[in-house]
Fold:
Amino acid sequence: MNLPVRPRRLRANETIRAMVREHELRVTDFIYPLFVCHGTDVADPVGSMPGVFRYSLDRLPAVLDEVVGLGIPGIILFGIPAHKDAVGSEAYADDGIVQQAVRAIKERYPNLVVITDVCLCEYTDHGHCGLVKDGYVQNDETVELLAQTAVSHARAGADMVAPSDMMDGRVAAIRQALDAAGLERVAIMSYAAKFASGFYGPFREAAGSAPGFGDRKSYQMDPANGDEAIREALADVAEGADLIIVKPALAFGDIMWRTKQETRLPVVAYNVSGEYSMVKAAAANGWLDERKVVLEALCGMKRAGASLIITYHALDAARWLTGRA
Structure:
């Protein structure tokens, strides 16, 4: 048999495969999520997320030294407040846990890119992402508090703010508030396509942010809707977003690809808690090769159009890629 085309010629050995490889996963692609809390000497493990902890500020240097040492360029912070109330007041308080963390981190690691999640769900006693009236999450009133939160994070030293609430018009309000405060250099990494997904369970345990009633389907997106995701992304671009997050990642590669093609902005894949935990569980049971599966999944996100990846696997993946594991 004399075949004129033999694609296997370019798979003959690792050197040739590397020469023609289309996508390369790099440590500089990663953003590492961190949960910060009040207290002293706290490194509280999250039961459903092996290897993930809630850290008090005095315990952050140990993990951040590793983040910086591995070459991971950025982190995203999620706060665990000391007190929750109906209006999520610690979210926008100057002495809130995230604001304290940002100041401490930027003082010690000035070149580390610090991104802050902007939402109210971790801070409200009802667990919803905005103010609630008569059982309904209020949009415009919530947006005002989100803008205050973003400004307080930026004043503390955050390089980027990442609104994750999915309220309409919040990117424009945050951009206007930042600019009015003289913080025009602070970028907005918008959760533009955030779906009402079943993959968020472990995060809600970690952050204590499960809704106290109902669900979030009236503001997070239906996973069945692709066109709507693009409309959301384009709206956020028009309002001043600098980067676009697609969340979750594994089941939404098509959304990442379409978002990249339509917006031409950097797209960020959020490899969420449930995606992390199911790999960890399967690996713990010997059902799959954790290293191989994680790197394959992360590379798939890049192939789908992601420029950056928020992932709880960042430390392990960075060790594997740099040969330090």
Q: What stands out?
A: The radius of gyration is 20 Å. The mean pLDDT is 96. The first helix runs from residue 14 to 19. The CA atoms of residues 32 and 75 lie 5 Å apart.
